[in-house]
Write a structure and sequence with these properties.
Oligomer: single chain
Radius of gyration: 17 Å
Order of helices and strands: HHHHHHHHHH
Largest sheet: none
Distance between the termini: 32 Å
Structural class: mainly alpha
Strand content: under 5%
Length: about 200
């Protein structure tokens, strides 16, 4: 499967070259391709997947910058860029490319904000927090994770709130704060209990 991805142009490149107006179908296809790349990440290491995800992200960014589309489609595309940036950051971090990962995460936050997607922006910040808790400034990790959990807004699902609060717990644990860790883990349980089956 990865071979096919390496030799096939992303569909968004073909659409931009053709000068077509982008619709919901292509925006949905970009999201579907991101989901496929996420599933590939379950089996491949970050070093193996980084180039594919980077290429897909660049193509999606080019689509946002060069194509014409309606405002709702634009928000969909910006959300897809944010999702791709989160995955790009994740695989770059997995490959030990921490500075590159941080750039992806922060670029994704910008795209998510432009899309009006606070939960996605929060997920991107919490992903950066996770990286910092493991290989960077743990105090900064706690601040970012806390900001992400608080900034997700009412649009965040219970599962998203649980993930964001888990990142707070992880950062607190890495910082060596057992009481704060336990408080955050209690909040994780509460959020998770609120999820829809």
């Amino acid at each position: 499967m990865t071979r096919a991805w390496r030799v096939t142009e992303p569909p968004q490149v073909l659409e931009v070259r053709a000068g077509r107006r982008v619709g919901e179908r292509l925006a949905a296809l970009v999201s579907e391709r991101t989901d496929t790349l996420r599933r590939m990440d379950d089996f491949l290491g970050g070093g193996d997947l980084h180039d594919l995800v980077r290429r897909e992200l660049r193509s999606a960014i080019a689509l946002v910058r060069q194509a014409s589309y309606t405002e709702p489609v634009g928000r969909q595309l910006l959300g897809a860029v944010g999702e791709l940036a989160q995955l790009a950051g994740w695989v770059a971090s997995d490959a030990g490319r921490y500075v590159t990962a941080e750039r992806y995460y922060l670029g994704g936050v910008s795209a998510a904000h432009a899309a009006g997607d606070d939960p996605l922006a929060a997920n991107l910040l919490s992903s950066l927090s996770y990286q910092l808790a493991n290989v960077g400034d743990r105090r900064e990790a706690v601040l970012l994770a806390t900001a992400a959990a608080k900034g997700a807004g009412s649009a965040a699902t219970a599962t998203t709130r649980a993930l964001l609060t888990e990142r707070v717990a992880w950062a607190q644990a890495r910082l060596g704060c057992p009481q704060a860790t336990l408080r955050a883990l209690g909040e994780v349980d509460e959020a998770y209990a609120d999820r829809s089956p």
